Structure formats: C-alpha cells, structure tokens
Amino acid sequence: MIEIQGLTKIYGGVRAVNDVSFSVGTGEIFGFVGPNGAGKSTTLKILATLLAPTSGRAMVDGLDVTTNVFEVRGRIGYMPDFFGVYDRLTSAEYLAFYAACYHVPRRRRAAITADLLELVNLTEKRDAQVNSLSRGMKQRLCLARALVHDPLVLLLDEPASGLDPRARVEMRELLKELRSMGKTIIISSHILPELSELCTSAAILDRGRVLAAGPLETLVAPGAGSRVRVDVDGDPEVALRAAPGVEGVTSLFPLDEGGMELAYNPDVTDPGRLLQALLTAGVRVRSYTPVAADLEDVFMRVTQAPPS
Q1: Whole-prediction pTM value?
Q2: Phi/psi at 239 (5° precision)
C-alpha cells in the first residue's frame, strides 16, 4: 500500500530525511519510531502531499505523491500532531463541514457523521461544541475527521500525545477496530510499549535515517534486547552494582512499585548468570522475572540511547 524509496528532504543545509526507504503492506499497522527531530513528521507530511521531497519517491496505493496529488489525497486520512479545530461548531457540524470539503454528497453527510460519532464513541457529544470536549475527545473527533471520506490509509502523527491512560487505551482499541475494517495505518509515536502491542511492523528513525525496519516479529527477535525485573531486599541499584559478574548490564530503571528493571547485553551474559551473581554476592532476591524483548529494546539497541 505504501512504498518509499530513497526519500530525502533538505531544509537549507539540514537533511531532515536522508535516503529513507521502507514499505507498508495493505492492512498493516506500521509504527514510525524515533526521537524528536528524527524526520518522522516530515516523512508523514510528504506522504500526505503537504511537502515535496528533495529527491526519492513516495507511493500510496501505486500513486506517486508528487505527480498524483489529488488522487493520493482521496486515499489518505491525515491526523497531524498539532491540529486546528473550529471551537464553536458542534461535533456533528465539524464532521459535516469536512465531509463537504471532501465532496461527500449532501444526502450522505448526516449518516456518515452519525456513523463516525458512534465509531469514536462520541454520539452523546454530537451537539456539544468542540471547545467543550476533553483532550481525548478532541483527539477522537479529529480521527473521525480523517475518516469522513473513507480513506484506504491513515497517517497518524502522535495520536496519543497528551492523552491520559484511559484515553490511550480507548485510542488503541479504536485503531485495532479500524485495522479490522481494512485500513492501513501508519502511527508516529513515542509510546513504545503500546506500539509493541499494536503494530504489525515498524521502522526506527534517527537523524533522518532508517536504522531498522520490518515486521515486528523480525525486529523483536531473540537477542534483539533483553531485560529482567528484579526485586531485592535493600537498595536494588546498590545490590546490582555490587554484585560480581554483571558487566553485561547496560542500564537500570527504577520501577514505580519498587525494585529495578535491568537491561543487559545477551552477548555478554544471560538471566541465569545474572541471578547467580546476585546470590553469590549475598543479595536477597525476592523476585527475578525475565521480560520478553519488545520494540523498546530494539529502539535502545539501534539508537544507543533511551527513547525521549
């Protein structure tokens, strides 16, 4: 559904996107991961026909985004990271307005508006002014706006930004439902655990370059990254630092519930050796749980830095 080949975008002397290539199959949820300034939003804007690339090609459903602008716009729904809303319109008026912008026949607009409000669970807010909605409700309304013309592809730039945990769960379930309806979805996000659960494939960008891309099960392979959760008596960080044989530890993260999460290099050590090192040092271990590798592990491995 989406094919990008050698895509480059230069602003002045800065290469915001540098020879980027990846593809997204029909019906996939594709995670676009990277720190601020990595080139994610620029790439999405090129796919949305809002920016012209300096070089390279971007295709949506077989159409070049630079030579088939209006045809591509009919196939995509774009939700930017910062979006404007017409505060004094009601939710229903807001969607009907955008349906008119996309030349949806007048006779169909009321039904489409009602269906979309039901889809994003805002039926009870159809007559509420947009400025009265919560942040999460506005996010869902703007997602509905991106769907008014029934696009094949959704381009979502940080759709969960600023949402509380409940609103993020609601957004995640909604995206799963949209995939079940046959939509192809690209999501730019910093919330890596949720992307791991949601996405079928991903690309990791840093400084405009793709560092890793492919199906999630390929990226998150054995050895891609390894972690364990450790709960010990006393200060867990002091205990881990004091224990012999933990030279393979690459980072330590305090957990809200106490204890630590420990990331290690599987080429240097393994969970069994780490546990034995702690016990040999006399550390009283209350629990020691290996954590399956996920997209966060891959991100940390290929960027050599924690996600921002």
Answers
A1: 0.78
A2: -60, -45
